[in-house]
Each structure stands twice: as C-alpha cells, then as structure tokens.
Amino acid sequence: MLNKKQKAKELNIYNYNYIYIFLLHSTEEIYAIINVKYYIPLIKDAF
Is the pLDDT of residue 9 over 60? Predict the structure, then answer.
C-alpha cells in the first residue's frame, strides 16, 4: 500500500508539471478537464 501511494505521489508530480505547462497555453476550462482526467484515477489507484 505504501509503495502504491508513493508511486501515485511520483505520478502526481509528473502530471502536475505536465498540466502546468499545458495551462500556460490554455483556458481554465481545459485545465479542469485535464485535472479530472488525470487526478481522479490517481486518487482511486492510491487507495
């Protein structure tokens, strides 16, 4: 379980960086769509 959470944490950092770069060239609406697409599965997988 700890390894799964650690992996999710590492993926979270990667996805955050990707989303941040994407956000620089996007609107908040697109950011919201990307946020749901990447973060909801990560949270589910972490637990």
Answer: yes
> How many angstroms separate the CA atoms of 31 and 19, rounded?
7
pLDDT value at residue 25:
55
The C-alpha angle with vertex 26 and arms to 14 and 39, in degrees rounded to 5, equals 35
Contact predicate 34/20, CB 8 Å: no
DSSP string computed for 1-47: -HHHHHHHHHHHHHHHHHHHHHHTTS-HHHHHHHHHHHHHHHHHHH-
Q: Which residue has the tokens 């989303």?
A: 19
- End-to-end C-alpha distance for the chain, whole angstroms: 8
- Reported confidence tier of residue 40, pLDDT bands at 50, 70, 90: low
